[in-house]
């Protein structure tokens, strides 16, 4: 009689004396509990269960990125090339900064030359890189990036050869190409199914472009500069470093919405590299702000900024690998997306 009354009055709610639910259906909640049937059976808003987080038989849902060391190296060198291209265009025609402009043109040319070589080394064959240029798809970050790299390399070569005699087409073409090369890699990462990169997709382009400016300034700071050149490089670098620091802070706050993604970013090799990148970036800023003017201070700040930029690229790759190995990161991210 008690069992019949309990079934009649409580509907989908269960008493722990009658049932214990397990599996993926466990942990469900009753939106509108039925009124108490006189205390015959205690009512539960949450079904009592031995609930465990859903998994995929202990296997990863996604494949890890198969990129090797040459890809994050390209991310850094491409950033330096992009930042140098933009700065070279901005300094064009300024006689007192002619030497600095020539160094920027040289860095842009070197970066867009070494970059395809690093990508080809990862791909294994030159033909695979050339095949990406057979079509142009505006909807594909990979296609945009391939054409941007090839086009910017051509414009940077012309800019280097023409020097101060460069025309507006070469100058502005190099600047726009440099902006694309510096930022498209962030769009490319965010356009994947990797939960860590997808969760950060809105911040990655800003991070990469800011870090490109900081990386360029870091390289230039380690070169011999006069006072006027040092002032220009310092201002350019501080803007980039501020944007890079703000993006990293925003990313960490964004990670807190999905604990599994945050764990992948904090722990393991990726977490160590991320911490090293933050420490190097902050140290470089603090050294640069010291009220002392000396070549040693400038070079130390540049070296720390360079170290932080390199660690940042490798941290994103290693943390992405860790996130792909964790099925809960993918499941939690998809559930959060569906709820929104």
Automatic annotation (TrEMBL):
Gene3D superfamilies: Formate dehydrogenase/DMSO reductase domain
InterPro entries: Electron_transfer_protein (IPR052049), NrfD_2 (IPR032796)
Keywords: Membrane, Transmembrane, Transmembrane helix
TM helices/strands, residue ranges: 66-91, 103-121, 141-160, 172-190, 202-220
PANTHER family named in the record: PROTEIN NRFD
Protein's name according to its UniProt entry: Polysulfide reductase NrfD
Organism: Geomonas propionica
Gene name of the encoded protein: nrfD
């Amino acid at each position: 009689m008690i069992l019949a009354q309990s079934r009649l009055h409580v509907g989908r709610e269960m008493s722990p004396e009658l049932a214990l639910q397990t599996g993926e259906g466990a942990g469900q909640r009753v939106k509108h509990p039925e009124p108490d049937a006189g205390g015959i059976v205690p009512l539960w808003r949450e079904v009592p269960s031995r609930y465990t987080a859903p998994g995929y038989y202990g296997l990863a849902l996604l494949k890890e990125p198969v990129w090797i060391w040459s890809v994050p190296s390209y991310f850094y060198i491409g950033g330096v090339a992009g930042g140098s291209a933009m700065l070279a265009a901005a300094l064009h025609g300024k006689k007192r900064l002619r030497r600095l402009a020539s160094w920027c043109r040289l860095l842009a040319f070197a970066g867009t030359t070494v970059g395809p070589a690093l990508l080809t080394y990862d791909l294994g064959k030159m033909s695979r890189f050339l095949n990406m240029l057979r079509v142009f798809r505006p909807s594909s970050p990979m296609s945009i990036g391939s054409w941007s790299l090839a086009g910017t390399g051509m414009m940077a070569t012309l800019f280097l050869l023409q020097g101060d005699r460069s025309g507006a087409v070469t100058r502005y073409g190099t600047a726009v190409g440099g902006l694309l090369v510096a930022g498209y890699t962030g769009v490319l990462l965010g356009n994947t199914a990797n939960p860590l990169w997808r969760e950060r997709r809105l911040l990655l382009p800003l991070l990469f472009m800011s870090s490109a400016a900081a990386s360029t300034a870091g390289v230039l700071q380690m070169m011999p500069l006069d006072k006027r050149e040092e002032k220009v490089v310092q201002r350019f670098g501080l803007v980039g470093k501020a944007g890079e620091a703000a993006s990293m802070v925003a990313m960490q706050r964004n990670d807190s919405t999905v604990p599994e993604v945050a764990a992948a970013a904090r722990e393991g090799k990726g977490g160590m590299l991320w911490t090293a990148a933050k420490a190097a970036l902050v140290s470089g800023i603090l050294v640069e702000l010291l009220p002392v003017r000396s070549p040693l201070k400038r070079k130390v700040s540049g070296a720390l900024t360079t170290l932080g930029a390199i660690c940042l690229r490798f941290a994103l790759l290693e943390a992405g690998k860790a996130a792909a190995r964790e099925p809960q990161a993918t499941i939690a991210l998809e559930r959060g997306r569906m709820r929104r």
